[in-house]
Amino acid sequence: MIVRQCEESLRRAQRRSTDGIATVRLGVSILRPGRRILDLWQRDAGKHTGIRLELVSMPDDSEAINDIVTHLGEDVDLISTAFDTGYWNDTCNTLALDSEPLCVAVPRNHALARRARLTLKDLEGTRIRILKRHRGANDTARDLLEQCPAIDLIDIDHYDLDTFNDCAESGDLLIPKPMWASAHPQLVNVAVDWPDPVVMHYGLLYPLDATPVIRAFISRIAELSCLVNGPPRQADMM
What we know:
By secondary structure, the protein is α/β, with parallel strands linked by helices. It contains six helices and eleven strands.
């Protein structure tokens, strides 16, 4: 495996040196597929011939992702994900392209999966898996859910495919990131009428010391997003 990785790195370097095209590497995984970024970039196909977008496979476990984010610009240049304002300020730059309210992931065979929207009252009598307290929108959702003693909250340390599988099999609900609407075929994201705003940003993480090529890519993605979706409600470009 190490030999194959070294050979692939060598091939990438050779491509960059021979064709004069700079490469921007987008990390992708099951939970961070990057589809929205790819769709935006493809709308601009042919207009930025000096930049090649390359997809790099990465794992979904939290320890590996945190390490990749800490070292953006080494093996991976960009990650598309949902994030809270200010969470990554000391680690990387962020570009917010959209703001999305947190929802509830419900197993398809659950009665609530057929609802268009849910209230906290609707969630009474359910078990809901939610991240342990750390900060941001998940904590806001937890505060609101804890006001309903008939809702049983189950702490989780991180998200991965096993978490989704367990919820699908057990019937538990899950507070996911909004971008995971199609992450698991047996779970359905259902909107929640939260009493207070519970919102995360969707966008890109990129290095603090981003190269000119990465900054050019980021700027163009921001422009394309505004053309397609209108300006985001909140954005952070550094």
